[in-house]
């Protein structure tokens, strides 16, 4: 693995080994490999254990062997230990051609929609510790500053706090003289009323220092045996993203109706309908849980040793489920036609920030972003923009004036994780 020297190197960065993957790059709305070929993501949501699935070398070896057979080239990990040694697992996944996309937040530091929203030093410190831990791995594909922070149609008042996090994470990389700037993005719930305002807001204007480098959408619209590109609404998702200036991909997808899943949406995502706009998809999820989205399972947990009442084993020998077999067949049959880096010219220029619309998009594009340490006031939470003296505007200039289904599924993924993670986290913390 290629070691990247950074002034603020963390202990986890020090190991070196044979280079298997060069870092991905971004130009315009596309990811590219170091050889100039376009990168299309065939990813798996991989949160095998509640706190960090990238610490167990043997388990990573077992899982990576099956992921290679599946045809995966990316994993998404929602929670990691910023103090853990991830060298072995990152190397294992690098060796099979897999990039890791890591969420920077955790249960205690995510940006809350209803807290009210806030962004402070404690959160930034936690984010940057995780960033430092992973930044030296060449197969770190990117980082998310949040996952489904906004979960309802009138939650747009939290959007500036997401953008403030992007700003400060990027500023940290600049301050610490990172050799490469890690792509930084956001993963959104698919809320019809906020389309395409949220994705456009996070990438609007011409100041890259406050904008996402990529945008992920958690979408489960392609559901049922009779759906298709138009019935599912994928045609509208594609239309809304046609002129998007940075890469956009499905950061979660894979409706579990019918069962086993048929993954027919992959033919659209990697086919002529969407391949020119979208950069791939991450399938939810690797491990079988009570929500029945698993590609594999490790069997049932021993009730005598299970932490927090979790009924599913969190490790062991992975056994492919029918969904695994179907997805392997689908992925092996889709070969998106990309463009080479040296022949690609991005025609998607800066996009305008969405105008404030009462009851739909309650963000004034001329309002400055929250400052570090700021909490939303009651007026903002009710949909009335508030002055933020001394902050930066959405374009980065100095300020001169003072979907319910996805939300429920997010709770399964990020909090419940098979019915036991909240209890498991509490129990684990009690043992420390």
Automatic annotation (TrEMBL):
Which domain of life, per UniProt? Eukaryota
Q: Which InterPro entries match?
A: GH, Glucanosyltransferase
Q: Where is the signal peptide?
A: 1-20
Record-given protein name: 1,3-beta-glucanosyltransferase
Record bears the keyword Amino-acid biosynthesis? no
Q: Where in the cell is it found?
A: Cell membrane
Keywords attached to this entry: Glycoprotein, GPI-anchor, Lipoprotein, Membrane, Signal, Transferase
Q: Which GO terms describe its molecular function?
A: 1,3-beta-glucanosyltransferase activity
Q: Name one GO biological process term.
A: fungal-type cell wall (1->3)-beta-D-glucan biosynthetic process
Question: What does the entry list under GO cellular component?
Answer: plasma membrane; side of membrane
**Region Disordered: what ranges?**
379-405
Question: Which top-level enzyme class is recorded in the Swiss-Prot or TrEMBL entry?
Answer: transferase
Pfam family of the protein (one): Glyco_hydro_72
Low complexity bias: start-end ranges? 389-405
UniProt main location, coarse: membrane
The annotated topology with respect to the bilayer is:
Lipid-anchor; GPI-anchor
